[in-house]
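Researcher: Sequence recovery benchmark, item below. Answer with residues only.
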């Protein structure tokens, strides 16, 4: 059945997962950063809540050496570790479908072999009111221009629209990644999508 509360339920589920994961990792003193679409959503919504696009899952950057500790720490909080199709993730035992899972990327490693850059190492996080650690905008931009899928281009436009991509962030990108950012802007301008 169609319901107007569908978005509310999704948001509640997504942030329940994030809060429980934060509690698990914090209690075990494991460093992490929220990345991906949720990281972008939270960064953009802080600037302009109406410009933020919701995502369907949670992506977290951790150190590979901490993976076993993460799996152990998360279990009492309702998560089960899985490695499926080359991806490390935590399945929410409340919502065991993979699309509601927490996906891991590893700092200082490429997400895919053909990516030009690795996931940035931990830098000073942006911290939410709840204490959740987000990758800073500069790291999110670098990751989005590295992966460069359609959804990443949309996330880049969202961050650019609210002023999160500063001249300093842009200037610190390697030439290839800066060129990709310029391409996203040019495509948006030519289609009127900015």
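Model:
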């Amino acid at each position: 059945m169609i319901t107007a509360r569908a978005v509310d339920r999704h948001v509640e589920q997504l942030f329940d997962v994030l809060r429980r994961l934060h509690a698990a990792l914090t209690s075990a003193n494991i460093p992490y950063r929220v990345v991906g679409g949720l990281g972008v959503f939270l960064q953009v919504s802080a600037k302009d809540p109406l410009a933020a696009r919701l995502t369907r899952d949670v992506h977290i950057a951790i150190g590979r050496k901490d993976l076993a500790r993460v799996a152990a720490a998360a279990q009492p909080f309702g998560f089960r570790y899985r490695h499926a199709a080359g991806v490390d993730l935590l399945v929410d035992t409340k919502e065991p479908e993979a699309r509601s899972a927490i996906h891991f990327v590893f700092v200082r490693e490429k997400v895919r072999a053909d990516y030009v850059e690795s996931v940035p190492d931990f830098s000073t996080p942006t911290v939410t009111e709840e204490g959740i650690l987000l990758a800073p905008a500069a790291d999110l931009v670098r990751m989005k221009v590295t992966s460069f899928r359609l959804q990443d281009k949309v996330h880049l436009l969202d961050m650019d629209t609210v002023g999160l991509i500063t001249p300093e962030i842009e200037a610190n990108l390697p030439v290839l990644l800066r060129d990709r950012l310029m391409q996203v802007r040019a495509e948006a301008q030519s289609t009127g999508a900015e």
